[in-house]
Amino acid sequence: MASQEGISQGQTVGPGVDEKLKTATIAETLARIEECSTLLKFIRDADLEYMLRRSGLHTLLASNNESLANVRLRDAEEVEAFLNHYLLPGAFESFDLRRVKNVKSLAGDTLQLRPENGSFRIGAALIVRSDIPCTNGVIHVVTTLA
Question: Count of CB atoms within 10 A of residue 92's CB?
Fold first, then answer.
């Protein structure tokens, strides 16, 4: 009989276990980021959460609550346009973003990247929390809308 060394059966992730083993989509991860609850509400109210569960890798520039305080999105079409402006094809971590001059959003908008005070801006959006890993990409929390 072959050796069973290195094989674990019934392996699960429980509280207190290595957090890196837990996996969640962009939608599920966004739901756990309190500072982005307004964005999540817009997305859920417009029934667009599926956009953040898609397969393939994406980068979400998630506007924080403060930056959305005075934003009014009237319908699902406006929310989808807003989301497509802040959703990038591919998973770009800070390491990747620091090496390019611009990126294109799903809406086709070209967003310029500029270093600023140890972080950087993508368009007018300042990254205030970066590199939140997800199974289908990465989230960067941003402030100041582009």
Answer: 24
- Pairwise CA distance, residues 79 & 76, whole Å: 5
Higher pLDDT, 100 or 6: 100
Instruction: Report the DSSP pairing between strands 137-143 and 58-63.
Output: parallel
CA atoms within 13 A on the CB side of 28: 11
CATH number at residue 117: 2.30.180.10
User: Is residue 55 in some structural domain?
Assistant: yes
List the one residue out of 103, 105, 100, 129 whose CA is nearest residue 115: 100
Q: Do the beta carbons of residue 124 and residue 145 sit within 8 Å? A: yes
Which helix (H) or strand (E) segment holds residue 85: the answer is helix 76-85
pTM for the whole thing?
0.82
117 within domain boundaries: yes
What total of structural domains would you count in the chain? Answer: 1
Round to whole Å and give the CA distance between 83 and 63.
10
